[in-house]
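Supplementary Note 3. Input sequence used for the single-chain structure prediction.
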Amino acid sequence: LTDFRNWNFTFKLLPKGQRDSQRLAEIIQFFKQQSIANFVGSIITYPSFFKVDVHFPKGESGKLFERLLIFKMAVVSNIAVQYLPEGQSFYRDGAPTSMVLDITLKELERVSRNEYDLGLR
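The predicted structure, written as discrete structure tokens, is reproduced below.
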């Protein structure tokens, strides 16, 4: 049997100012928090599930780009952030002027050969 599929995404984040930098920090924090389990009393809850869709770039009416890839439900299995990949450069409040965000998603279902005939890639 094949293993669950992993998908790696790399995003180069270039905030235009301190405000953008703060918002990106919040987005990174969100993904980090959602990638781990939680405790509710003595019960462990699952990390958050994500459904990824690929859309046309701006101006193409935002329709799903079905010819590219279709993803199954997934969880974040790894997240890494490189702060200041080009060297030390900060805004006045100490926020970084650039970041690289790497996210690995692991699908929660295996893919079968039959699904490729139905359009899953």
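The two ends are 17 Å apart (CA to CA). The chain has one domain: 6-36+44-117.
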